[in-house]
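Translate structure to sequence.
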């Protein structure tokens, strides 16, 4: 798989995980005697998708993926409202009641969820990109993931649980921090398994590149690298041959015998 296909795949996966996390996030469960939302099995992997998109492209691609995913998330409840306002038919029983509970969510909760998603992922991109510039990628991953997960939990819980007591909100926040630390380790391991290896980028003038339509970008870059290596090898051989010719052409110095003094 080439880089563009992988990037498109993780952008699509980011949008899908965001929508699924918003749907299943209504259900609470117990994990190690703490109460958490079941979207912990899907939402943390949105951060992994964002990191992989940056690895395959750049931070602009990651920002675009966040924007597209947020628009798709907002289109889902809008399309449901439009569909439910349409008339019903009498030939077959209406099955819409089975999904009403999933989509009849407070509008503030949806906006809070999208806002938390955008701000937390933008924070991750900013921290990771700055640490990576100073060759400290692992520190950027740890600090970026912890900060973004914490920010996401704070924004979403304060908006969605605004009618509950502050003690319950604090308990939910502590529960999210504990599960975030566990998921952080999993995400970092998967990131280093799935990431593309850093390749040395060679700057080549556009005029010197004659790109064939049938060749991919990777093949063109590979051909240019081979040409560079061949030029370097040929220049080294020429230099060595010149030095050998110089040594062969130099005549040995003859020492003149001085005449004996009579």
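Result:
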């Amino acid at each position: 798989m080439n880089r563009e296909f992988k990037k498109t795949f993780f952008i699509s996966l980011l949008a899908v995980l965001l929508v699924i996390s918003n749907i299943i996030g209504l259900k609470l469960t117990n994990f190690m005697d703490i109460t958490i939302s079941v979207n912990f099995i899907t939402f943390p992997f949105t951060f992994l998708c964002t990191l992989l998109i940056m690895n395959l492209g750049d931070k602009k691609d990651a920002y675009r993926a966040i924007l597209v995913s947020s628009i798709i998330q907002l289109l889902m409840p809008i399309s449901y409202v439009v569909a439910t306002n349409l008339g019903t038919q009498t030939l077959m029983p209406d099955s819409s009641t089975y999904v009403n509970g999933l989509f009849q969510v407070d509008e503030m909760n949806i906006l809070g969820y999208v806002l938390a998603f955008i701000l937390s992922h933008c924070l991750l991109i900013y921290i990771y990109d700055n640490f990576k510039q100073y060759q400290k990628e692992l520190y950027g991953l740890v600090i970026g993931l912890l900060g973004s997960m914490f920010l996401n939990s704070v924004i979403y819980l304060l908006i969605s649980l605004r009618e509950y007591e502050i003690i319950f909100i604090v308990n939910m926040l502590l529960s999210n921090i504990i599960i975030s630390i566990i998921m952080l380790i999993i995400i970092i391991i998967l990131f280093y398994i799935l990431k593309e290896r850093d390749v040395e980028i060679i700057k080549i003038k556009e005029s010197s590149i004659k790109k064939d339509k049938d060749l991919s970008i990777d093949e063109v870059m590979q051909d240019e690298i081979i040409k560079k290596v061949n030029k370097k090898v040929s220049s080294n051989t020429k230099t060595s041959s010149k030095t050998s010719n110089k040594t062969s052409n130099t005549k040995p110095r003859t020492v003149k015998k001085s005449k004996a003094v009579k």
